[in-house]
Write a structure and sequence with these properties.
The chain contains three helices and twelve strands. It is of the alpha+beta class and 272 residues long. 37% of the residues lie in helices and 29% in strands. It folds into two domains: 62 residues, no CATH class; 165 residues, Beta Barrel (Thrombin, subunit H). The radius of gyration is 44 Å and the shape is rod-shaped.
Amino acid sequence: MLEFIKKHQATILFFCLVIGALLLYSNSLRQKQHTSLFERGILQLTSPVYQTIDTTARSINDLWSNYIDLTAVRQDNIKLHEQLRQQGKQLLDLQEIAQENIRLRTLLKFQPEPEQHEIPARIIAVDASNWFRTITIDKGTADNVHEGSPVVVAEGVVGRTIKCSATSSRVLLVIDAASEIAALIQHNRTRGIARGKGATLTFDYALRNKDVNIGDMVITSGTGGVFPKGTPIGTISSIYKPDYGLFQTLELTPCVDFSRLEEVLVIQNEEQ
């Protein structure tokens, strides 16, 4: 501290003199009505000092005010970003609920036979292999789901349960190569067997002299004791008639979009 005073003693003395002069000048202003030549000189000399001090004080005050304002704005921005994030999440949740409601309303359009009832289930796993076409649902024997129960949606046949535990079941999709369903062509009642081909189905044993057309609907025949009669399976997408033989081969496009399945209905007889 002493070294600082010794080093800047001239500057400190100058400011002390200026401040002393200002105090004397201020005191004299209180006692005199007229300004002397000396006082005018002092006023002229000290005016830049006053202006510098005032400008510096204003700058510091403005800087501090701006800092306070910017800090408040930053805090407001953080709060607004958080509110926007929360509102965005709520919007996504509401959209997902709306989509789920649409799917469930569509699902409930399926009307089972009077002696049957439906058990709603969610899909919890999908077999991703190329060899099998199966899904796993969140209902099992504890929910009165048993092996061989038909699984449907409003659009048509999904498949049938093949393995059941207490809380889940595996469903063999109708498009799996191991799946076979007794079926008939809706408009002319031609009977046959609908078999899975991995992504599509075939309708086998349709007599070649039967009149069939692209777009004809194929439904379950009700025989076999698994699927209720009249449930849509698919529509005819191609027709192959060999030169010889009794039957023609039909390819079907399934009514159900299996890539978009999320909820299904398990149809159960009352006696089970």
